[in-house]
Specification:
By secondary structure, the chain is mainly alpha-helical. The chain contains ten helices and four strands, in the order H-E-E-H-H-E-H-E-H-H-H-H-H-H. Strands 1-2 form a two-stranded antiparallel sheet. Strand 1 and strand 2 form a beta hairpin. Helix 5 crosses helix 6. It is elongated. Keywords: Cell membrane, Cell projection, Endosome, Lysosome, Membrane, Transmembrane, Transmembrane helix, Transport, Ubl conjugation.
């Protein structure tokens, strides 16, 4: 009987790429995104007046600093950690070290769980969508048109959008998991072949002992008349 893990196992992703190639591309893509975010955060630390997003009292009724120095430092540390994790996954897929892929896979599971909780919160508390729209600044494009939409249609659109994101993230999780299985399987196969070869060399007796060859009779002696 084929297990569900083996049924969904495949060495290809995106219909053409190998799972190793897909994991390497995914790791590099995540590193580029986090590197851009890191540069923006470092620029905000260097020049906080220019990059700080300040909401005026005419928009929300209060003065709110969305990003202060503490939050920027925390976001910078998270970006550095993400670059490290993505670099480990890229290196592990390239050098075929399965253990290096595990942190990136765990991050994908954590990110998928957070997005799932967001979808559940929208279903349980549908009014949170309207509350979120009310907190947006007045200059946000099409804010009034979106808020005038029926709440049921708005929640359905949000759930449809989150569902598409979750489906794509689940597919990427499957690609990374298949890459981990492929790399770990190759390492196990190489070890087994090595051990089997050594055991065969040690355990098999020599050919002369394994195949009993009957001794040849000496030639008959000639008798003199």
């Amino acid at each position: 009987m084929i297990s569900p893990w083996d049924r969904w196992y495949s060495t290809s992703c995106c219909l053409c790429c190998h799972v190793r190639t897909g994991t390497i591309i995914l790791g590099i893509w995540y590193m580029i995104i986090n590197a851009v975010v890191l540069l923006i955060l470092l620029s905000a630390l260097y020049d906080p007046v220019q990059y700080r997003y300040h909401l005026t009292s005419s928009e929300l009724g209060t003065d709110i600093d969305v990003m202060d120095d503490a939050n920027i430092c925390i976001a910078t540390a998270i970006s550095l950690l993400m670059i490290l994790i993505c670099g480990m996954a890229t290196y592990g897929a390239y050098k075929q070290h399965a253990a290096w892929i595990i942190p990136f896979f765990c991050y994908q599971i954590f990110d998928f769980a957070l997005n799932t909780l967001v979808a559940i919160s929208v279903v349980v508390y549908p009014n949170t969508v309207q509350d979120y729209l009310q907190q947006l600044p007045g200059t946000f494009p099409y804010k009034e048109d979106i808020m005038s939409t029926n709440n049921v249609c708005l929640v359905f659109a949000v759930l449809l959008f989150i569902g598409c994101i979750l489906s794509f993230k689940a597919y990427l999780i499957g690609c990374v998991w298949n890459c981990y299985r492929y790399v770990s399987g190759r390492g196990t196969t190489e070890v087994l072949v090595y051990v089997t070869t050594n055991d065969t060399t040690v355990l098999l007796p020599p050919y002369e002992e394994a195949v009993a060859i009957p001794p040849k009779d000496p030639p008959p002696q000639y008798l003199e008349a």
